[in-house]
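Researcher: Here's the sequence for the chain we discussed earlier.
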Amino acid sequence: MGPVNHLPPDADGGDASRKSKDYSEGPVWHPESRRWLVEVRYPNLTRKRRRFRRQREAQIWWSEQQRAIESGTWDQLARATALKNLTFGELCDEYRSWAKVNQRSYENYAKVGLKFWEEKFGRESSLDKLNPQWIESVKSAYALTVEQATVDRKLEVLRAMFNWAIEGSLIPGPSPMKGIKLFKPNNELVRYLSNDEYAALLEAADHERWHVRPVIELAANTALRKRNILRLRWDECDFNTGVIRVTKTKSKKTVTIPMTDAALNVLNRIRNKTGKYEYVFCHLEGVQEGQPIGDLKKSWKAALKAAGINRPFRFHDLRHSCASQLVMSGASLMAVKEILGHESLKTTMRYAHLSPDYIAQEVKVLDRVLPKVQNKKGPQPLAPKEADCDLKEAKDNGGAGGKNG
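Model: Thanks. This is the structure I predict for it:
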């Protein structure tokens, strides 16, 4: 077999049949660059061009693409290529930049979730390595160490990121989260504080940083979320009308909450401390002076421990307690719905937990409502046959007793 000629017979550029550059029939020789050009048009109207030194290599690649288009697997090749060119860390950075601007819950939700997955997968891992099996293994292992609801929150962040990237054409689909199921545990647990527990918690909070007790008191008396309290501004506190108007809420609507006497006393106590700043709860010194306080996780846990509250109780459960106290004090569910800022009454029902003692007392209303009906007939007489049998049995027992005596 003779040597392979890698150039066309008219490599000097005189190939009149290729001047129109019709790529539909295969590679085309380009005399100026002395390369074989290949162009493939895909069903989604995109196209890809490549250059080859050898005609055989160009023909092989063109044939592979044509077979992929005919079999419907052409997008898988494009997907694999796109995923190899992007690392997991780069995708997280892109989503992080978007989420900072567009998600109100970024600090406590997406930021935490992205950091978790970067630690598990590694920032340098290429996206083509991520698959449902790997995600499922991380999910199962993590579920052995934390509550299922915590696992679900991390999975939701990952799912949201991949959906965002696919919808924005940053990466091709399908999402590696496809087929991954959430645990969806029952989160309608009754979590509220008794009066004694609440008093003990406030006393323990007095030994923490200055803002811990007033934050807890506001949460228990307004049902505001922790983020709304820590970001509360003085211009949102209307002392003339006695209401708090929070504009940046989870439901993205303004919520107006009347101040209770306790809430008013809390705000008046700290007004002299932070009244000159924009935020009610802010740093009093240092480089962050005047900036809102970020969180109180450590102080919250310390206060719970000092108060002797050993059962699971989150800061958000103060919102549950407030809703339950309102309902048990006679407030309508519609009023509670407006205070909590819920879109539907069904959501309010989850928060409006009632204590067992309260429910037991409410059930006793039936004793006052239902009529007391006496059984006037008294004990029912025995049927004639049953009476004869009983009399015969008594005589037999009596006779047996006499003989034995």
